[in-house]
Design goal:
By secondary structure, this protein is an alpha+beta fold. The chain has helices at residues 2-24, 43-56, 134-142, 147-150, 152-177; strands at residues 32-37, 64-69, 74-85, 95-107, 111-122, 132-133.
Length: 195
């Protein structure tokens, strides 16, 4: 009988330790990145196209910290989106928070790469300069008492995943719609090249 009780206690303790470890580990960060091969692509033209998109077509505003590095052919900026969460009380309204993220573009020897990541949540609209890393924020939500009902940790993860995917899709669509200039070519093709 003692052996059974010891075995049950040991099993319960190991489950408790595993659960405690699972709760203290942070969720994986949400990021979308892709490396695109462009045959005979002109790095200068690719850089200029990405910069034009960042300056005029970027869909998630307000945008800040736009940096264009012509020498290294890199473009980066910070975009803003909103996430909605269920209220802790069933009768309460949804809560909306700003989420900021980084878009990064650079040319490579084979084409270009871009990424959408480094998500940060603004937990208090009255303090817009204070942000919390997304994975830490999701961890805090998962530990909230009301999370069994609201599932805000999953809501926030799904919404930010959608933002990363949408930004990437908008950028890739824009780049695919642009003419490809062969390496060394500058400007538009002349009439002879179109035949």
């Amino acid at each position: 009988m003692k052996r059974i009780i010891v075995a049950v206690l040991a099993g319960s303790l190991s489950l408790f330790v595993a659960t405690a470890q699972a709760q203290t580990t942070l969720p994986a960060s949400i990021e979308y990145s892709e490396e695109v091969t462009v045959e005979d692509g002109n790095p200068v033209a690719l850089y200029q196209q990405a910069l034009a998109w960042a300056e005029g077509k970027f869909p998630y505003t307000p945008k800040t910290d736009l940096q264009a590095k012509k020498e290294s052919r890199e473009v980066s900026l910070t975009g803003t989106s909103k996430i909605k969460m269920a209220a802790a009380k069933a009768s309460g309204p949804e809560q909306e928070h700003a989420v900021r993220f980084t878009f990064l573009f650079r040319t490579t020897s084979q084409g270009y790469m871009y990424s959408v990541g480094n998500f940060r949540v603004v937990p208090d609209a009255k303090e817009p300069t204070i942000t919390v890393a997304l994975n830490e924020y999701i961890q805090l939500l998962s530990q909230a008492r009301s999370n069994d009902r609201t599932r805000n940790d999953r809501r926030v993860a799904a919404q930010t995943n959608a933002v990363a995917s949408d930004v990437a899709s908008a950028f890739r669509s824009y780049m695919n719609s642009q003419p490809v200039l062969k390496d060394g070519a500058v400007g538009l093709p002349n009439d002879n090249d179109e035949r």
